[in-house]
Amino acid sequence: MSKGPGLFSDFGKKAKDLLTRDYLSDHKFSVSTYSESGVALTTSTVKKGGYSSGDVAAQYKYKNISTDVKVDTESNISTTFTVAEIVPSSKTIATLKFPNYESGKLEFQYFHTHASLTAAVGLNQSPPLDLSVTLGTPTFALGAEAGYETTTGKLIKYTAGITVTKPDSCASIILGDKGDTIKASYIHYLDQLKKSVAVGEISRKFSTNENTFTVGGSYSIDGLTSVKMKLNNHGILGAVLQHELIGKSLVTLSSEFETKALDKTPRFGVALALKP
Questions:
Q1: Which residues contact 192 (CB under 8 A, 6 or more apart)?
Q2: d(CA 1, CA 9)
Q3: Where are the beta strands (DSSP E) in 63-168?
Q4: Maximum Cα interatomic distance, the chain, rounded to a whole number of Å
Q5: For 127, which of 74, 122, 170, 274 could close a Cys bridge (C-beta 3.0–4.6 Å)?
Q6: What are the structural domains, with CATH classification, of the chain?
Q7: pLDDT tens digits along 190-225
C-alpha cells in the first residue's frame, strides 16, 4: 500500500481509542491459540450484570488473503473476507452475516500517494451506498463521507473533516450528523519514546446546544504495565490499569464512577486475555 493520507475513518481515531478502548464495565475472559498453518482461534466469554455471552472467532491468513469467522452464543455467524492488491494499492473486503444476511456489505478501498477512496454497498435488494474520499498527505489531509439510500434516493448522511499529524501530535476536526455535530480532538506525546500521552476531545450538538468535553491520558510505567485515565465535564471519571503477563497475555482492570454523585456504586470491569 502507498503511504498517503489514510482513510477518512482514521480521522480522530487515535484520540477516540485512547478515550474509549479498555474502559470496561463488565467481566471478559478470552483465550487465543495459534497453529503452524496460520490459523488463529479465540474463545471469549463476557459476563455483564446477571447475563453471560460468548463467541468463538477464527482467523486465517494466506498471502494477500485473510478470512475471519465469528460465531456467538445465539448462533449468529459473521464472516469477513479481505483480499489485498486485486488492483494495485487496493483492498477489497466482503462481510457476510447469517441469519441476518441482508446486513452484509462489500467494500473497496483504494490508496494513493495523495488520496484514498472507499466505496461500500450493502448486499440486499435496496442496498445503501457509502462513499468516502481523502485528499492530502500523511501530515495534512481533508476528507468527506456520504451515504445514499437507493430506496428513497436521498442522502442519509454526510460528514467532512480535516486532520493534521505531526511526529509528536495529531489534531482532527469533524463535522458530522448532517452538520448538526462538530467534534475536535487533539493528542500529544509528551516524550520521544511516546510513553506519556495527553488527549482532549470536545463535541457540540447544535440542535440541543449540548457540549461534551473529555480529557485523558496514558502512561507506560514500564514495558509491561500502563495506566490510563479520563474525565469529562459531566463528572464521569474512568481509570484503567493494564499489565502484560507471560506470553503477551493481558490482564486489564477498569473502574468508572460519577464524581457528581459519589453515593452511586462505581462500575468495575475485568478482562483477562491469554495468549501463547
A1: none
A2: 17
A3: 65-72, 77-84, 90-98, 105-112, 115-122, 128-136, 140-149, 154-166
A4: 59
A5: 122
A6: 8-274 (2.40.160.10)
A7: 998 889 999 999 999 999 999 999 999 999 998 899
